[in-house]
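Example record

One chain of 123 residues, shown exactly as stored in the release files.
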Amino acid sequence: MAIRDEEKILKKFIPEYKNLSAAELSSEIIARLSPQDQKPFIEANRKRMRYCVEAEEDLRRGRAKHALELLEYALGMSYYGREYPYGLMGDAYLKLGNTGKAAEMYTKSGSHDSLKKLRQLKS
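Predicted structure tokens for this chain:
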């Protein structure tokens, strides 16, 4: 399933899906789909995870720019499960000293961990 096909499915359920955080999108839309309709989203997310794991390793090794490249590619693979890559992008931007971009990525993620990091940034 291509990301354009995912967009068609998402538009049926919530037309303003692009305004949702990644966490809201996953919990409010994908989780309500039938198992048959969920399958392509989940499979695309599974393929994306190897890039996220590699990006996380890059971050541990201090290679934030390479991590961002991997994560940008990974985000283009699917709408489902974007919390993790957006959160990692926030970490990468933080390592690069760009707190504004880090805050933006943590907000897009919407995960509990990312929102916690966002609160720490703002305090």
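Notes: Helices lie at 3-13, 22-28, 35-60, 64-75, 83-95, 99-109, 112-122.
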